[in-house]
Amino acid sequence: MSNDSTSRIAAGLRDWMAGAAPGARLPSTRSLVAEYQASPVTVQKALRTLTAQGLIESRPGVGTFVRAVRAARPADYGWQTAALGTPRAPLRPVSTAMRSAPNDVIAFHSGYPDRELLPERLVRAALARTSRSEAALSRPPAAGLPELQSWFAQELLAATPAGVTPPTPSDVVVLPGSQSGLSSVFRALVGSGQPLLVESPTYWGALLAAAQAGVRVVPVPSGPGGPDPEELDRAFEETGARLFYAQPNYANPTGAQWSPRVGDAVLDVVRHHGAFLVEDDWAHDFGISTDAMPVAARDDSGHVVYLRSLTKSVSPGIRVAAVTARGPARDRILADRRAESMYVSGVLQAAALDVVTQPAWQTHLRGLRHQLQSRRDLLVGSLRDLAPRAHVEHVPAGGLNLWARLPDGTDVDRLVRDCEAAGVIIAAGSDWFPAEPAGPFIRLNYAGPNPAAFREGARIIGRVLDAS
Amino acid sequence: MSNDSTSRIAAGLRDWMAGAAPGARLPSTRSLVAEYQASPVTVQKALRTLTAQGLIESRPGVGTFVRAVRAARPADYGWQTAALGTPRAPLRPVSTAMRSAPNDVIAFHSGYPDRELLPERLVRAALARTSRSEAALSRPPAAGLPELQSWFAQELLAATPAGVTPPTPSDVVVLPGSQSGLSSVFRALVGSGQPLLVESPTYWGALLAAAQAGVRVVPVPSGPGGPDPEELDRAFEETGARLFYAQPNYANPTGAQWSPRVGDAVLDVVRHHGAFLVEDDWAHDFGISTDAMPVAARDDSGHVVYLRSLTKSVSPGIRVAAVTARGPARDRILADRRAESMYVSGVLQAAALDVVTQPAWQTHLRGLRHQLQSRRDLLVGSLRDLAPRAHVEHVPAGGLNLWARLPDGTDVDRLVRDCEAAGVIIAAGSDWFPAEPAGPFIRLNYAGPNPAAFREGARIIGRVLDAS
Asked: Is A340's CB within 8 Å of B316's CB?
């Protein structure tokens, strides 16, 4: 329509501005209308384009001006550091797992599954339906959309054995992502300066949330079978901690899955100490050769606080998770969420519910299982063939990651840099350790882009390892 | 399609279950397929329906069972209170402003504008476009979508006078609502146990976030023209506070707007004390007889931390806001946001940006101004005529609320209860005071549903006031 006139006016004004001083006033809309024989709407459009390009600025009621390249005074915010002082607990640096990478590298570092593993059609359809729904314009209750609370409760109910009272929908608090749940749980149930037991290694995001909450992190070693209940018992005893954070299913980074026996033993220890198990079921939808079996389903005495996220399996654009807890613990978590964010966008909640209640969601999950399996097996095999010194001690039964031990004495940071220089991004294991790393480890995500490049990636890692 | 068969099977199974014991096992899918001459897909559909109704439950690999009405053991979570102890700082109760109300009452209490004041068409179109966009399936940077950061920076630039260096897009951190910004600012820039100056009365959500952060709130009286700079100076002096939280434009609840002179005087005081002004520009889009004039636009020395929300003017479903800050303050806020939630859903960011960059958004805002004006004038006039003892000291030049002083000695809580019994919901002023209320006040929102009922609502308030 008027696109051509808009460009013509914008181009003319750019020419004019080339000869104008910064701060000069543009001709009035009226005179531009006359000069360019265009409608006021078209002139306004051209002005908006130039504004968006940062070339001009309008002062309402005064006029439009060539944007002065302001003498960018050297900014000195030194007074701020005096006002703020040293941070009480400096936050950990952001993990490699959050880095974006260019398309031409082989990326094993990400914390997220690649686009091709997401239910794209379901997500787009759900958002389109949501745009026409009540959720687009309304505010849901602080604890979440009742239908979504029910869905989360129902999922846990399906895994609950007879004789155990399942959680109710009102035990569920919907979250804008599970990271927010970790922050709230550590703030509301542990509190600044208090001890928090965590598996070691464990999810770096939990360590970040713990640092933010100012809690004192106490590592409990955890291997391919989970933590040793006796060591856990000792750690509770020695520290007086009231909370143990763990990932019983396909732990990040090790891929460990607890057996029911270990789960029950951990539950016994937790109960014995009048404490909580915070179960982060981050990979519930990423089972390969087994299914995720929430420990929470075997507890009805309020000792398990259960986090379940949909962000990674549905879409990072639809950021929704839930925490299920009972009694005063649930009340304190909800109170913290209210103070933190009042409520979670109903658009995201409605879209997430739409996706996971479609029959095609189950079909998607079945396909995903096969894709993860072949990706995992491809990477395990490639490493075995081409980078045998990166030793995968435990082939995980689910999740997104391999955890590889390198030869003793390997300089992991240097290895990571050398690999990156050769076009392969990997994550140093140190991000997942609350204290010193237990050895030289790297984490490799097999759910990243372009599995066709996995062998080449393994070849490069092997070459760099041999050279180091 | 198979809907009829599905219902037929579901009905048949319900009949069967009526005679079955809780916990009884349902016939296998195979035998149901044979019995009902239906496909396995149809049988599964019927079972899903019954599951969703809570009538049956399936145990993967075991079978499907009539859901036992479990002997709901009386839950005793007493051990939790022992484990958790008394909350350090009990959180304030949730304000009346967050209550949902049935349709048949006259609602003056809400903190949100009514649906008819929202740009419904724009919101739905933006979400539909977003469902087809890259944002539906990707993860934006922690600080926000660059285009949205630019939009927020651009808006502030447009209000920046010559000689002041405007903020850059990278000074902007996108938030999932401004409540999250308050939490982060109080945590990152004040810290537990430290003093925070606030206007009194002020926004209850800020008081809630302050309680969550464990900061010590110090009230500074603020009237229709804002705070007295000398009193503010004294409060900084006496407490050693480094941060003053305020709403210079159409303050909630009083509707006060600071003159440029007051803004400059407050800035001077803040600078003198090496402190921050946290400017909560919550009602930026709700100017009636004036425009919002951000104090932040007149500062380039990093002393103003500027909060701007789109939730209330775009849609409560599209929960997006931003905080603009410079230097180490910005870095600490961003670090806190990362630890708290990693990133904000790109779906919400893209949809918000889509709405506010449509030409129709400006048209909407112009219409909104007129609607707010007539609603405000209607309620002011109705109170004057029918509830003259509810005295509106200051007719606000923008915002959503009237702040009415009642006769000395009025029992406000009782008045609120009596009004509710008569079908009118109002909010007691005490929610907006950090300490004791300065007098008997109520807050009345003129942006709620059904303005045709405003006179009737005022009549009821007047009647209840006369009777009290």
From this structure: no
Which residue do the tokens 């299913």 mark? A249
pLDDT by 10-residue block (mean), chain B, 468 residues: 73 82 84 90 87 78 74 73 77 76 87 95 98 96 96 94 89 97 96 95 96 95 95 97 98 97 97 97 98 96 97 96 96 95 96 97 98 98 98 96 97 96 96 94 96 97 94
What domains does chain B contain, in order, with CATH numbers? 3-66 (1.10.10.10), 96-115+361-467 (3.90.1150.10), 138-356 (3.40.640.10)
As a whole number of angstroms, the distance between CA A214 and CA A88 comes to 8
CB contact under 8 A, A345 and B345: yes
pTM of this structure: 0.86
Contact residues, B window 33-92, toward A, CB-based 8 Å cutoff: 45, 51-52, 54, 57-60, 68, 70, 72-73, 75, 77, 79-84, 87-88, 91
A25-35 b/e (C-beta count within 10 Å ≥ 16 → b): ebeeeeebbee
What is this model's ipTM?
0.85
Phi-psi group of A47: left, alpha or beta (phi > 0 → left; psi -120 to 50 → alpha; rest → beta): alpha
Distances (CA, A) of B390 to B405, B410, B441: 6, 11, 8
CB within 8 Å of B41: residues ≥ 6 apart: B2
Contacts of A58 in chain B (CB under 8 A): 158
- Give me the phi and psi of B222, to 5 degrees please: -140, 125
Helix (H, G, I), strand (E, B) or coil at B226: strand
Cβ atoms of residues B253 and B429 within 8 Å: yes
**Are the beta carbons of A341 and B180 separated by less than 8 Å?**
yes
